[in-house]
């Protein structure tokens, strides 16, 4: 357990975690990180007009223990499926960024290598690339059969149990001031009594990985599964034996239910052969190639042909560069040329 945190300025452990979270340096550093890409937002501009006073006022509330969450604004997005986002006020989002910055290095080093969501140097493209490496290796360069078990946790963020989450955090953190603050953050949102994390909070990203970390290690160590990857609540397990995958489903279901109070989505427990295509994180992996999922392709083209922002187009070109999708690339480049000529 850690009552002190690794000093992100470099060099060993230094002081209580709470002191790092509430330090002036960390709060200003959190502000710099938090406001990236948001400088034109009205609430950000308003907060920045009196930045020093706002940050020192927040710090005083944290140190006195009087801070309380200012609530959430609810709205929906399509990414690509409809999602409900709960957005906190600027002051609270700044705090969540400050907490995230200090907790991240403490917990990240405990995560398995093949956890790809919300981690530095990981992400969707890295996850797809790693899965491709696994498939090639296990299939002996696509000469042997490989099966993939794909699972999705039902209503993952809405189902995260607050008590279980706090107990998992306590395994690494014993600073009581920090734990009280984290408990306030976690309890500030409830989808149902003592359950749920808001999708809009940066802290929810690390809390989700903390919540699933013991499960990841259970898969690797207890079930002795070598080829396993997870991104948030989506995970895939590879095996050359289909029966092994079927056999392990009951252990997975039992662990999630007993230890994390989670359940698998019954319609999203799938076993597929490699030559049928392994659908993961918006890509379909086949022998010798990776292509974009048809639904993803249609969504990209729809967004590209309704935007006039070259940066958006460049981001999609970067996204598809990881796959063999020459046709969609030509269509996007056509749109880019049209905008450039205007």
Commentary on this structure:
It is a single chain. Residues 5-15 have low confidence and may be disordered. With 342 residues, the protein is an alpha+beta fold. The chain starts with a strand and ends with a helix. Helix content is 51%, strand content 15%. It is globular and about 65 Å long.
The helix content is 40-55%
Strand order of the largest sheet: 6-7-5-8
Shape: globular
Rg from Cα: 22 Å
Distance between the termini: 60 Å
- What is the H/E string? EEHHHHEEHHEHHHHEEHEEEEHHH
Number of strands: 11
Question: Spans with pLDDT under 50 lasting ≥5 residues?
Answer: 5-15
Mean pLDDT: 88
**Strand fraction:** 15-25%
Largest sheet: 4 strands, antiparallel
Q: How many DSSP helices? A: 14
Structural class: alpha+beta
Descriptive keywords:
51% helix; 342 residues; 4-stranded antiparallel beta sheet; 14 helices; alpha+beta; 3-stranded antiparallel beta sheet; single chain
Task: Please render the helix and strand layout as text.
Blueprint lengths: L3 E3 L6 E4 H5 L2 H11 L7 H8 L1 H14 L7 E7 L3 E7 L1 H19 L15 H15 L8 E6 L3 H4 L2 H9 L5 H12 L14 H21 L5 E4 L2 E6 L2 H19 L9 E4 L4 E3 L2 E4 L2 E4 L1 H11 L5 H11 L5 H16 L1
Antiparallel strand pairs: 1-2, 3-4, 5-7, 5-8, 6-7, 9-10, 10-11
